């Protein structure tokens, strides 16, 4: 049982830390206290600490972990720095909440999962769209069979990032970002889709670099067969001026749609009954009045703290947090080989287990 506010440290003083995580912390009031921030840029760490009234700042994560008695570290670094930061925190006995994408590879993910102890500390990952009441309502209906069987789904992340977005040297590269919009953008939506529909079984994909001067893709498309037998289309784009995040779930008795961009509330969802469904039945499907919870970092942090208080593994961790990264690896493997990929193919003997482009750094160095 957590006594008093959870002592929290911020790892990485960039835009996502101030834009999303600190507001979430403040939303939860006395449940959590930010006691330190660390960033390799000393001036950025100092400025961040002053801006957010954080008592102490550091330039090395080891120094922060040695000096502070943290309960939770929030990792907000660029993707290539996730693995060493998370590993250092777990070894120090500190729970971690890490920004997406979780790691650059499945191999790295499994390495970190092996550092978790029995009963913790655990590392969970930022997939905040799972935690809105609309998604919870749909999962409940799927579990009870209220809408019938899932048959068809669409999961489309149609976003726009101009050429300047890729100016930071770590963006658009396999070795530092792990991929393009499939890895860093669309992963949010298909994490939500898989959270609702369950594990995937097979993927057939293509991708291209159509307009941006980058190493990775700027668009990808895939057809996914789920373990249930349902089929889902996946589109990930950074070339779409009218941005939207669109999920659609077709069941035998209803279509459920979610239209949003970077977050939703209950008003973003629409339930449409099939023609054979009685109106008195379908009237009960929509989210309950006065129970709306928006998808947000706040909602996920609250669930994480609840799990820590209970001594339980948090959602979006372990195998539960891994399935979306598996789909990323499977999609890239299919697109780059031109072959269908089964989820069961992604074992340590598969090159796409070790690198999202199938070319592990060690192999490149010795080639």
Q: Can you put this structure into words, describing what you see?
A:
This protein is α/β, with parallel strands linked by helices and 367 residues long. It folds into two domains: 6-125, NAD(P)-binding Rossmann-like Domain (Rossmann fold), CATH 3.40.50.720; 134-288, Dihydrodipicolinate Reductase, domain 2, CATH 3.30.360.10. The chain is 35% helix and 24% strand. The chain contains 14 helices and 14 strands. An eight-stranded mixed sheet has the order 13-12-11-7-10-9-8-14, with helices on one face. A six-stranded parallel sheet has the order 3-2-1-4-5-6, with helices on both faces. β2 (32-38), α2 (42-51) and β3 form a beta-alpha-beta unit. The longest helix has 20 residues, at 318-337. The radius of gyration is 21 Å and the shape is globular. 45% of the residues are buried.
Total DSSP E strands: 14
SSE sequence, one letter per element: EHEHEHEHEHEHEHHHEEEEEEHHHEHH
Helix content bin: 25-40%
Overall average pLDDT? 95
Overall CATH architecture of the largest domain: 2-Layer Sandwich
Query: What's the overall geometry?
Result: globular
Distance between the termini: 52 Å
Number of helices: 14
Class based on secondary structure composition and strand pairing: alpha/beta
For the record, the CATH class of the largest domain is Alpha Beta
Major sheet size, sense and barrel closure: 8 strands, mixed
How many domains, in number, for the residues? Answer: 2
Strand content: 15-25%
- Poorly predicted ranges: 363-367
Q: What strand line-up does the widest sheet have? A: 13-12-11-7-10-9-8-14
Domain Gfo/Idh/MocA-like oxidoreductase N-terminal: 7-116
Organism: Georgenia alba
Protein name: Gfo/Idh/MocA family protein
Domain GFO/IDH/MocA-like oxidoreductase: 137-254
């Amino acid at each position: 049982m957590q006594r008093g506010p959870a002592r929290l440290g911020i790892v990485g003083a960039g835009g996502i830390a101030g834009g999303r995580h600190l507001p979430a912390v403040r939303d939860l009031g006395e449940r959590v206290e930010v006691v330190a921030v660390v960033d390799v840029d000393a001036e950025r760490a100092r400025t961040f600490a002053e801006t957010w009234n954080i008592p102490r700042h550091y330039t090395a994560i080891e120094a922060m972990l040695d000096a502070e008695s943290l309960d939770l570290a929030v990792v907000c670094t660029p993707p290539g720095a996730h693995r060493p930061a998370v590993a250092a925190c777990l070894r120090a006995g500190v729970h971690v909440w890490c920004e997406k994408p979780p790691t650059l590879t499945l191999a790295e993910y499994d390495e970190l999962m092996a550092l978790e102890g029995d009963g913790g500390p655990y590392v969970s990952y930022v997939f905040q769209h799972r935690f809105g009441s609309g998604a919870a309502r749909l999962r409940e209906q799927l579990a009870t069979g209220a809408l019938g069987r899932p048959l068809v789904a669409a999961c489309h992340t149609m976003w726009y990032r101009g050429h300047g977005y890729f100016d930071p040297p770590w963006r658009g590269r396999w070795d530092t970002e792990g991929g393009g919009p499939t890895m860093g953008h669309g992963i949010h939506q298909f994490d939500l889709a898989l959270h609702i529909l369950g594990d995937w079984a097979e993927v057939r994909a293509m991708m291209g670099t159509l307009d941006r001067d980058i190493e990775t893709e700027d668009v990808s498309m895939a057809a996914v067969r789920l373990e249930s037998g349902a089929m889902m289309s996946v589109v990930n784009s950074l070339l779409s001026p009218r941005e939207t995040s669109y999920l659609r779930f077709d069941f035998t008795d209803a279509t459920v749609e979610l239209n949003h961009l970077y977050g939703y509330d209950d008003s973003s969802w629409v339930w449409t009954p099939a023609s054979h469904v009685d109106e008195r039945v379908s009237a009960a499907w929509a989210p309950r009045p006065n129970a709306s919870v928006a998808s947000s970092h706040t909602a996920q942090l609250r669930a994480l703290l609840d799990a820590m208080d209970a001594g339980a593994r948090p959602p979006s961790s372990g195998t539960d947090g891994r399935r979306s990264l598996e789909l990323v690896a499977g999609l890239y493997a299919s697109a780059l080989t031109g072959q269908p990929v089964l989820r069961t193919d992604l074992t340590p003997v598969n090159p796409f287990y070790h690198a999202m482009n199938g070319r592990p750094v060690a192999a490149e160095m010795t080639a």
